[in-house]
Amino acid sequence: MARALSAKTSGRADSEIDRELHRFADQFQGVHFFCPEGGRYVVAADGKAVTCSVHGSALAPRQLLAPAGESSTDKLLRDFTGMTVTLTFLEDGLHVTVSIGRK
Ligand SMILES: [Zn+2]
Predict the structure, then answer these.
(1) Residue 57 CA, ligand 1 centroid: distance in Å
(2) What is the pLDDT of residue 98?
(3) How far is the CA of 77 from the centre of ligand 1 (A)?
(4) How many A from CA of 89 to the centre of ligand 1?
(5) How far away, in angstroms, is 43 Cα from ligand 1 center?
C-alpha cells in the first residue's frame, strides 16, 4: 500500500502521505494500525518500508525493556490481574471463552 501511494505522491509533505496511508489501510484492511507505545509510523521515501519511531522496522526492530510510561500497553499491564481461557469441544465445534481480569 505504501509503494502504491508513494508512486503518486511526489511533492507532497511526508505527514500528509502518512495520514493518507493510514486512511487507505483503515479502509482496505478494516483495521486501524497504531503503535501501542505512541510511536509514529513513517513511510520511506521510496515507499518500500514503514518504520516505527519507537520500535524500528521489520529489518531492524527495537524493543524497550518495559512499556513506555503512560502508553496504552503500560496502562493495560498495570490493570491486568490475570486471564483464564476455557476450551470446550462441542458437536458444532470448539467454543472458547476468554476471561481477562482487570483491577
Ligand atoms: Zn511502535
Answers:
(1) 9
(2) 97
(3) 17
(4) 37
(5) 13
Give the pLDDT of residue 8.
60
Ligand 1 centre to CA of 61 (Å) is 9
Give CA–CA dist 96/81, Å, rounded: 20
Q: How far is the CA of 41 from the centre of ligand 1 (A)?
A: 7
Which of 68-77's residues contact partners 24+ apart within 8 Å by CB, and which partners?
Answer: 68/37, 68/38, 71/36, 71/37, 71/38, 72/36, 72/37, 72/38, 73/36, 73/37, 74/37
pLDDT, tens digit (0-9, with 9 covering 90-100), for 30-89: 888 888 888 888 878 777 888 999 999 989 999 988 888 888 888 888 999 999 999 999
Measured in Å, residue 39 CA sits from the centre of ligand 1 at: 5
Regarding predicted confidence, which is higher, 17 or 8?
17
